[in-house]
Amino acid sequence: MVRRDEHGSTLSARIVEVEAYLGERDPAAHAAAGKTLRNSVIFGPPGHAYVYFIYGNHYCLNVSCEPEGLAGCVLFRALEPLTGIEEMARGRGLELHGQKDWRKLTSGPGRLCEAFGITRARDNGCDLTSAAGTLWIGDDGYSGRRIVATPRIGIVKAADKPLRYLLGGNPFVSGVKVPRA
Fold first, then answer.
1. Number of independent structural domains in the chain
2. Number of other residues whose CB lies within 10 A of the CB of residue 109
3. Digit-coded pLDDT (tens) for 1-50
4. Helix (H) or strand (E) holding 178
5. What gap in Å lies between CA 142 and CA 160, rounded to an integer?
6. How crowded is the C-beta side of 63, counted as CA atoms within 13 Å?
7. 158 lies in a domain?
8. Do the Cβ atoms of 9 and 20 come closer than 8 Å?
9. How far is CA 101 from CA 28, 89, 138, in A?
């Protein structure tokens, strides 16, 4: 994930945890009730940001992932900070005391949105496939860890579905940790 902010800073972080939401047939998905003005982004085209506000104080970032007309998205749950660490800390209102504190920046959907300055007004509907924008998904060339599938967390409906994907053993994963295998 890369953010080029209005001050010319570039923030970047590796995606280490996501959850899939399978559209209108998934009772945990925002699309389960059908298309609305609020969730229209997740009905396509793919590659666009769907940002929503939760619990009255946190934004969450998803990317639409189905062909236009079909609903589906992937929620970004955690990132591993790479560049722009001080800017992320300012965005979160944190004072860092070394790398051990970096987990506080982007480990969780609300935290990563604060660190990257992601809001519904600013980012909902933006094309996450284009580096010409201010927020996009990039490839840092990383490989080497095992991807683990687990049940989704933080939901009640369809919580047993193994639709949470993470890098096993990564210290930036949110919620329940999964050991390296």
1. 1
2. 26
3. 999 977 788 999 999 999 999 999 999 999 999 999 999 999 989 999 99
4. none
5. 29
6. 16
7. yes
8. no
9. 32, 10, 24
Q: How far apart are CA 69 and CA 44, in angstroms?
A: 6
Number of neighbours of residue 152 by Cβ within 10 angstroms: 22
**Tokens found for residue 157:** 């409906």
Domain range for 98 is: 2-167
Angle at which helices 85-92 and 109-116 pack, to 10 degrees?
Answer: 110
Compute the CA torsion angle 138, 58, 37, 125 (nearest 10 deg): -20
Residues in the chain: 181
Bond before 45 cis per omega within 30 degrees: yes
Torsion angles phi and psi, residue 75, rounded to 5: -85, 130
CATH number of the domain enclosing 128? 3.10.300.10
Take residue 87 and report the two structure tokens written for it.
């800017």
Return left, alpha or beta for 82; rule: phi > 0 is left, psi -120 to 50 is alpha, else beta.
Answer: alpha
Indicate the burial class of 70 (C-beta count within 10 angstroms; 0-12, 13-18, 19 or more): middle
Is residue 179 in a domain? Answer: no
Model pTM above 0.90 = yes
Residue 41 belongs to a domain: yes
Q: Is 40 exposed, middle or buried (0-12, 13-18, 19+ CB in 10 A)?
A: middle
